[in-house]
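Appendix C: a fully annotated inverse folding record. The material below is reproduced so that readers can follow the format used throughout the book. The structure is listed first as C-alpha cells, followed by the designed sequence.
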C-alpha cells in the first residue's frame, strides 16, 4: 500500500473524529446507550466513506459510472442503517432530531470525498533501496 493511499485513509478517518468528539462531549452526561453515535462511530463513518470511494475507484474504474454506482449504493445502505439507529435514539430520548443522521451522512460523504480529491502536496520518496535512488513525486508530476 502506498503512502498517498494511507494518508487518504487517515484523512477519511480523521474527518469523523472532530464531529464525533463534539457529539460525545455534548452528550457526555447522558445515560449509557442513550445516543446512537459518538467519536468511534463518526470516525468509522468517515473511514467507511473512504473505503467505499476506494472500492468504487478500483472496481468501477473500467466503467465510467461504476465508481459512482458503488459509492451511491454504499451511501444509501449506510444512510438506511444510521436512520434506523437515530430513530431509536429519538424514541429513547423522546424527541425529534435529524442532526445525528445528517451529520453521519455528511461524514460518510466527506470521507469519500477525501479519497477522491487530488493531493495538493508533493512528497518525494525513493523508489529503491540501492545506492542510486530515483526520486519520484507522490501526487504530482516529475
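Designed amino acids, in order:
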Amino acid at each position: 500500500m502506498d503512502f498517498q493511499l494511507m494518508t487518504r485513509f487517515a484523512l477519511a478517518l480523521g474527518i469523523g473524529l472532530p464531529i464525533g468528539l463534539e457529539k460525545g462531549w455534548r452528550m457526555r452526561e447522558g445515560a449509557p446507550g442513550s445516543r446512537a453515535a459518538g467519536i468511534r462511530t463518526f470516525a468509522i463513518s468517515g473511514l467507511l466513506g473512504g473505503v467505499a470511494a476506494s472500492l468504487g475507484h478500483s472496481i468501477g474504474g473500467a466503467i465510467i459510472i461504476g465508481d459512482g454506482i458503488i459509492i451511491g449504493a454504499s451511501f444509501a445502505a449506510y444512510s438506511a442503517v444510521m436512520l434506523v439507529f437515530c430513530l431509536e435514539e429519538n424514541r429513547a430520548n423522546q424527541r425529534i432530531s435529524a442532526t445525528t443522521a445528517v451529520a453521519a451522512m455528511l461524514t460518510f460523504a466527506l470521507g469519500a470525498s477525501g479519497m477522491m480529491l487530488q493531493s495538493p502536496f508533493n512528497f518525494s520518496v525513493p523508489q529503491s533501496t540501492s545506492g542510486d535512488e530515483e526520486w519520484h513525486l507522490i501526487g504530482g508530476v516529475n
